[in-house]
Amino acid sequence: MFDKILIANRGEIACRVIRTAKRLGIKTVAVYSDADADALHVREADEAVYIGESPSASSYLVIDRIVEAARKTGAQAVHPGYGFLSEKKVFAEALAAAGIAFIGPRPHAIGAMGDKIESKKLARAAGVSTVPGYLGSLTSDDEAVKVAEEIGFPVMLKASAGGGGKGMRIARSAKEVREGLRATMNEAKSSFADDRVFIEKYIEQPRHIEIQVLADQFGNTLYLGERECSIQRRHQKVIEEAPSPFLTPQTRKAMGEQAVALAKAVDYCSAGTVEFIVDKDQNFYFLEMNTRLQVEHPVTELVTGLDLVEWMLRIAAGEKLTLTQDDIKLTGWAIESRLYAEDPSRGFLPSIGRLSKFRPPVGEGVRVDTGVYEGAEISMFYDPMIAKLITYGATRAEATERMSLALDGFEVRGVGHNVEFLNALMHLPRFASGDLTTNLIAEEFPEGYVAPSPKGEALNRLVALAAARHMTSVVRDAGMSGRTAGKLYTPPKEWTVVAGEGHHKVAAKLVDGGVDITDGQGNIRKVRGELGQHLDRFDGFVDGVAMVVQIDRRGTTSRLVQGGCAIQAWVMAPRAAELLSLMPVKAPPDTSKMLLSPMPGLLVSLAAVEGQTIKAGEPLAVVEAMKMENVLRAERDVTIGKILAKPGSSLAVDQVIMEFA
Ligand code: ADP
Fold this sequence. Notes:
The chain has 661 residues and is α+β, with helices and mostly antiparallel strands. It folds into five domains: 4-103, Rossmann fold (3-Layer(aba) Sandwich); 132-201, ATP-grasp fold, A domain (Dna Ligase, domain 1, 2-Layer Sandwich), CATH 3.30.1490.20; 207-444, D-amino Acid Aminotransferase, Chain A, domain 1; 456-478 and 491-580, Glycoprotein, Type 4 Pilin (2-Layer Sandwich), CATH 3.30.700; 594-660, CATH 2.40.50.100. The site of adenosine-5'-diphosphate has 21 residues, from strand 9, strand 13 and strand 14.
């Protein structure tokens, strides 16, 4: 085994690798850029080497500096994590040339699987079932339309060099093929410097199910079951689980055996993942092979009991697998949620800033993999993932329940985040029934996500909690003013909780260990637990129901969040609540007659001129943001009034691009 390794990565995955290395008594070297000088992976490693400026092209992607850092520190091997250089054949080659082991597969396997067209050809030859399609690169619209018509609509246009969900488009008609080919080629060129685009059949109601493989350097190859990653947003995974609630043991075995056949065909060693798309009849088709550790590997670790990083280290050090396929047993259920710094209510735009609060949940069956800490900064330079929250249970229902509670308790402040949205996913009846497809998010949240108000008793409990907190703090304040003569104040017992449009009249009574709240119908709800106004989280009981609730104070109101639902509560004297309706409300400006930029970006082109009439669904403008070309379309029939932005100019979020007449 190695004495010292270098981790050519950052964030949670660098910390994840360090954790196993420490357990095995291996010393670790971190690398870091300017933005990461204070990062968690730097703090946790035994040594750290500075490798350059913040943009990854000047640091984490500079092969020479990383090889040099390994040489200088005497690291015998390098773990690449995921992303960055993990799937760059030249990196593995450079390390080999320097006599340093690469903790991953051999260079030729990385190369063979790095290209979607080439890997599909290879998979076909290895007897792996692939998506029907045309494996040449397309250049002309006419050719693309001809191929698409042969395959049959709908089809998918894909960049051969694509990855991370970028460079992919569904086309349901010849017109969409024409429109899509240009855009996909442009995107492929700007993101991957390679404009080859191919076409394959779009599998309807698809599920994404992938097989984890593990192989040593001696050709022993195993499959460690599957992960279902169907819950995606724009082809990027959001929630993953193991096992899949969909596969029969027969399909699992067939997929596992094909994955092993493919791994053997490229002489694979180390951990790798063979991704499949699965249709509603359990037909499965190879998508691609990722020749590295995946973000979602923890769910496999929890159901197999294996440490994948440990095995990657052992295999790279030349050890043989001591397990056989029969030893691989899947026990229980694991679910992973990816916490991102992004704002779901604004079309999931990335959010950057300082984590003024970061308190992950703890509990039975809860694992948190993260690379940040309270006070750390989420910068614009890297992937905006804050943490991965993984829960384990004996059954899927138990793992789901634990996930939901853990999300309720996850305190993140200072940056926008998707914690509530993840919890809303956990509460979908469709999630519980396991009826997943990659379209689930688009279908369930067509307008995006804004936390809805809870209903029924769930609402009543939050109202009671808001009142109880208010009462507690008023009584505490009264106690203080009581010390000053002439400032004696007896808090009222009656309050009105204004939550949205609803006015809830309650009476509050302080009792031992909490507050009793009586509603207008005379129902008493016992709120028990710490109720201090300084707490951002309530962890206690309302009416005997265990509740973990996030509480965000905003001026005189509080936002209470639980189970993916939220209320904005304002507790006041009943008379004040009555007068509230007389208060003027500031009306937001009417933006329905304008086209606003939904994100900061670059205005690539305009598809309309002043005075032109545009039909609903037709393009108005193209905005490039985060390497994606976004076509902004008319939501209804409109006539263009004034155009206020020029192509080539940069746009702020909500900047007016044009007005409608
Ligand atoms: P990337 O390398 O960018 O991750 P993949 O080929 O792995 O691209 O595809 C990512 C996702 O896109 C899949 O998980 C699936 O949701 C969707 N997808 C890809 N190909 C197809 C297809 N032929 N039919 C339906 N969905 C597809």
